[in-house]
Amino acid sequence: MKIANMKWPGLMAAALLAFGAHTALAGPGGGPGHHGQGPGFALEGVLAQVKAQLNLNTSQQAMWDSAAAATTNTRGTGRANMEKVQEALNAELARAEPDFAAVATIADAAQASNQTLRRQVRDQWLALYATFTPAQKAVVRDAVKARVDRMQSMREKFRERMQSRGSGAAS
Description:
Elements: H1 8-26, H2 43-54, H3 58-93, H4 100-130, H5 134-170
């Protein structure tokens, strides 16, 4: 069935489901390096950025390796889950009367699974952070602060651009 032949509500439902399925993997704070902690903050991303400065001990390095492997595995599983959603959506779109509720159910299950996996990995990185000395935590704090400041600056610049476009269009 071609998209041109779909009725508008069906097209919108398909688009929303597809968007929802892809954002389930990327999700709020999602995507590579983000595990539900909010945009611009992924602990493992910050830790990777400052790893050389942390001077990890043997135990911390073992925890790092485990968390890094779990992160990689979670991303692969998340992608596989979203591929299943995409396959279900494509199968339904091939039908004369797609069952979008069935696709939504599959997408919800994939999103729930991915969120559980992201939280498990996040908890591993937080457990590693909990073993840090005050000096190591200061390095991480400073890196997080720099990242948050950078994100705030980018938001402000974006807001200014959008406001200048709005005032330019109004004149």
